[in-house]
Amino acid sequence: MNRRAFLQPKRVAQPAPAFAGAAGASPSLAANPPETVSPYANQALPDGLRTTASTLAPYTGPWGLPQAAHLLRRCLPGPTRGEMQAAAGSSLAAVLNGLLTAPAAPAPPVNVSTADTTVPIGQTWVGQAFDQTLEGARRTSLRDWWLGQQLTQGTSLSEQMTLFWHNHFVVEFGDINSAQYGYEYVRLLRQHALGNVRQLAKDVTITPAMLRYLNGNASTAAAPNENYGRELLELFTLGKGPLIGAGNYTTYTEADVQAAAKVLTGWRDQAATVTGYFTASRHDTSTKQFSAAFGNA
User: Fold this and answer.
1) Domains of the chain, residue spans
2) Full-model pTM
């Protein structure tokens, strides 16, 4: 065996997309190839996806340590043997109720840096004035605090779902350059971690961290910014479907992105109060219409 060849990834030829001048391709697609679509984008959903035969009917099978361990390992970052044994000694219904019960909100992160003379060691910096020289220490404190919550969450899904929603409604702390904004963002995710996804999507849209991260705070009637509108449709809610026309991704269109951007104009962030707020004079008041994917709303 050639060890060098074995360690090299196998190169698979990529078929040309159907709209790239292939025989029988849509004339509109051939004439107006969508620039936002990768030449290697899926033209259809992949085949052979694993499915489950399970239903929403309550589980009635055996319940013991193997089943309890299986459940907790999939719901918690690192359940202890004691937690698994306690779950096995309880009923499945009681364990599920515990997983779906949100604990009390934790105390906010505290100052651990001697460089921050504005806040005593061990007291929280949340609510203090922004200071660029202290941002690094405060973001480190925020990350350490959040990791600590995950490690000590007990048998509730709350922290695991907070992390899940962070991975979904992504914000990068370094990019927003505000530990205060980062804390408010995490607090919001935790508040809605086990709640209504629609309400979470609404609230995270105007949280100051998201407004700053995806440029919603600079989107005005004169210059609508499509960054958040595109992420909202493509990544946060609908998802991009198969390409069925120029700028038409089945579930939404490029025109829908533009309409969403106009709907969201006028929002800004306020560092002093760590809030998002609306300025009517910056809002696009024109009529917006979405595509047939939205029922032409």
Assistant:
1) 63-99, 105-209, 214-297
2) 0.81
